[in-house]
Amino acid sequence: AQKITQTQPGMFVQEKEAVTLDCTYDTSDPSYGLFWYKQPSSGEMIFLIYQGSYDQQNATEGRYSLNFQKARKSANLVISASQLGDSAMYFCAMREALTNSGNTPLVFGKGTRLSVIA
Amino acid sequence: GAVVSQHPSWVICKSGTSVKIECRSLDFQATTMFWYRQFPKQSLMLMATSNEGSKATYEQGVEKDKFLINHASLTLSTLTVTSAHPEDSSFYICSARDLYDRAFPSYEQYFGPGTRLTVT
After folding, report:
1. Which of B91, B108, B109 sits opposite A43 (nearest CB)?
2. Which residue among A45, A100, A110 places its CB closest to the CB of B111?
3. Once rounded to an integer, what is the mean pLDDT over residues B68-86?
4. pLDDT category, A104, cuts 50, 70, 90?
């Protein structure tokens, strides 16, 4: 079963508008972390925002915020005031605590391609 | 801070040859490095996890004899694609964990810029 599901292969948004990118996850581990990354056409992975499973508040980083609904196992990324430079692939990822070995890698969803229109 | 470099950034090789990709943490020590592969318009798939001084742990379906990983120091891990074939053409990305970042599960994985391999 997929651990991370991103159901939107592509999204369009008008410049200066807000957009929500969906992410649902599957885990039975009570301790986990959720991450969002941006990958522009150059290929580099840019860390955007993090949400821990025990965090009481939704994470925010500048124009990025995470709508964390734990009971629904969703962690949607909200980008406010979209800019042309926001056009890129966006990946949701999860790290489970599992054995707490410390070496648990990130597992990624399939990604959503966001296109910002002028 | 927390910069990870990869070399080369792109490489073209003939089928049957071997290619080595280097991943270096430039300003921190990496106890663990992760190697991912990304095919066009697809997600990052974990290939293996390497720890300094020990054997890498490979994901199911990844041939360890084909994708040799050596994590010889706290700042360098190498991935060698042996006897490369056209189906090995992909974007390979390494990622490193800072030795002193104990926060779990929130520790950040610092990603390299990737290496685009084309096998002809």
Report:
1. B91
2. A45
3. 94
4. confident
Q: Which residues of A touch B104 (CB under 8 A)?
A: 97, 100, 102
Do residue A42 and residue B91 have CB atoms under 8 angstroms apart?
no
* CA separation for the pair B78, B85 (Å, rounded): 19
- A75-92 pLDDT per residue, tens: 999 999 999 999 999 999
| CB nearest B104 (choices: A44, A100, A105) | A100
The DSSP secondary structure of B68-82, one letter per residue, reads EEEEEETTEEEEEE-
B54 contact A CB<8A: no
Kindly state the tokens that stand for A25: 């996850």
Residue B51: what are its φ and ψ, rounded to 5°?
-115, 140
Average pLDDT over residues B65-90: 95
Tell me which of A97 and B96 has the higher pLDDT: B96
Angstrom distance (rounded) from CA A51 to CA A76: 11
Q: Both tokens of residue A33? A: 């972390």
Chain B positions in Cβ-Cβ contact with residue A104 (cut-off 8 Å): 105
User: Omega of the bond prior to A40 within 30 degrees of 0, cis?
Assistant: no
Percent of chain B predicted with pLDDT > 90:
77
| Spatial separation of the C-alpha atoms in residues B119 and B105, rounded to whole Å | 37
Tell me: the pLDDT tens digits for B7-34?
999 999 999 999 999 999 999 999 899 9
- If DSSP codes are grouped into helix, strand and coil, which group holds residue B54? coil
